[in-house]
Amino acid sequence: MSDKLNGNLVDPAVVTRWETERRFIRQMSFLPVQALNTLARDRGVGLSPFNEDVERLWQIGALRADLVVGRQQLDIEGLIFVGHDERGEYLYADVRDCVSRAEGLGNVLTTLGGMPANAYLMFHPFRYYVLSRVEQELVPHIGSLQILSSTTGLQKAVERFIASFNEKTADERFRSRVRRWNEVVSLAVAVEPFAFSRVFGYYKVPVTYDNNEEEFYTALRNQYEDCKALLISIGVDGVKEILSELCREAERLEPNDDIRRLIRLTKRYRIERVKGKLGGSMYLLTMAEMIRRAAERVFDTELPEEDEYGYGGGEEAASFKEFFYGSRRLLDSHEAISRFIQDLNLDYTVRLRWYVEGDTELNALQSELGGDENIEIFNLRGEVIAGKGKGLSFRENLLNDMRRFVYSFVYLDADVDHNRRVLLKAVEKREMFGMFFISKPDFEFANFNSDELAEILWEMALEKGAPPEEKENFLRLTSTATNGRQLFDNAKKALPEWQRLDKGKAWGERLLNFANENPYLQRDGQKRTRPIIEAIIMARRTVECGYYLSKEGGRVDKETGRIVNVKKYFAYGSNMLKERLVERVPSALVRATGYIEGYEIKYNKRSKDGSGKCNLVKTEVEEARVYGVIYDFLDDEKSNLDKYEGLGKGYNAEGVQVITDSGEMRAYTYVADESAVDDSLKPYSWYKDLVVAGARRHSLPPEYISQLESFEADSDPDAERERPNRKLLGR
Fold first, then answer.
1. Which helix (DSSP H) or strand (DSSP E) does residue 725 occupy?
2. Looking at CB atoms within 10 Å, which of 29, 60, 594, 704 has the fewest?
3. Structural domains in the chain?
4. pLDDT tens digits for 196-233?
5. Is the bond leading into 441 cis (omega within 30 degrees of zero)?
6. What is the rounded distance in angstroms from the CA atom of residue 615 to the CA atom of residue 646?
């Protein structure tokens, strides 16, 4: 391990000198001994309630101060004079190392004298990290029930710990570790002034500098330039090692990933109020993030977030965030944060909006779901297209739902054909995500038999004063109805003097009450769950599902109205042309266009017809891109495409990260096996034309289309093979 990784990271005297020269840019206040002692005790470090533990750890050099202030000159080894403050007091940097004794540090405090007179110590809150690490070295790892099992065994365990502790602390490597812990804190203290705003979103400008902000920001820039040189000397790998140490300690204090993530999304003052070891974990993660943000700025790169450095982190943690929340950078993406909060069911907002056409469905659903804060019921009142003064159109509402990660449920009657066509068009254009239900011919008769409806309506008529002797005639007339409107028309014919029967609130509530009591519908010799009961069950299940994950892996099926699982496929060759792809996977729909980096396209995959087909070839050319189209299709159709493409017989399936206008998207594609690559091959002209036509169809960049056109091609000697492929081009 290099010196930079072995406890020689930072010259603390330099950091303290910066601090004294630019103390007005400090964002987190230094703490006296008592305040640091309280902070550490409140966050799980087992210090005494008095100040002597912090003072004694300082005396033996295990804990460095960020600033030592003397009312008079101090003559203490390891304290370096750096200047005076405005009161004329003496300011010192603390560069002392932990004391070294051949016999180890057992009983070392008995050799100490008192604290130096006329001096007081100041610590950055980040010194908590040193106290936490030192405590681990001082606490014996003995089972809490050992005394109940064997007092002799307990005594022996303590004796073994003491011997081991003395042996460890007598070793120079222990002093190196303590030095490193302190210098990691010094690094965090150095970058804190300019990294603070990247973590918490604001700067605190001292009141005395409100009228001279230029001086404040000039000092910040100077602090950055000084820290830039320091970070460059440490290097990216050295920074990652530091971040790993801090994040592992944070994970040891609080092992629950989601709890740590959630609290880090709150405001600074709330983070600083968190106590117990969880609060300590927050301080360490704040340290780590400040160092990371500073290093990202210096090295002009993105480093992994803090949850990727723990024991269960790395690529697995990054992939988890990308898969579930849509981004590897949870702290930098508002959309990812929204998905994370929603996934924890902590958003307390509408997660599903249910659109209905009229009062019957509205009142039925409100009687069942009206108290569910996650579900909102919206009555279109037959207005699928908004007129003047009627607000948003149905389509705009569906699009807004998608922007807000809200599922859309739509319940329409089949007898209003225009509304149905508008809905299906939205599904086809991916302008909604959720489920839809088409009632044939309408809500009443899709969910109930005519005799059931007649009985329910008769009960309402009785309550309104209908003569009981009219029941037989009433049921006879109403049970012949075939839609809801006819049902009420026939009811009014049966009871002409009772015109108060209508599709009001009571009607919708009665229908759903009946459905709940009798959830199965008997029709055509079959027994099935009533569609409205099935839809309500689906809605309640859906709000428990993460929107992003469902949408990434699914789409609304135009035939069934349900969410179906799909595969995302990146087409970069002839399959960019939809007419060609749907021959192989009929359910294919365009999801996005985009490009992948680090590849170039070649026609060097050997085909069974002897020509060259498209292939992705890795390249070191920095700006290399291959453009294409992301399609998705039903899961069970993938085997068809595998067969057509020759999976395992020249092509392999590989995952790729596609950059689109709406962000990165994961998909799979086909890449030629090395055994099937021949750079001497050329494509047939019809195949090249299919590729170019697909690129044009999806408006890929003109310069990329020109690149595709520039490849040489051969004529196909087999006219029978060429004819159907030319037909796809309309030629």
1. helix 719-728
2. 29
3. 3-306 (no CATH), 314-343 (no CATH), 349-561 (no CATH), 564-728 (3.10.490.10)
4. 988 988 777 776 655 567 888 899 999 999 999 999 99
5. yes
6. 13
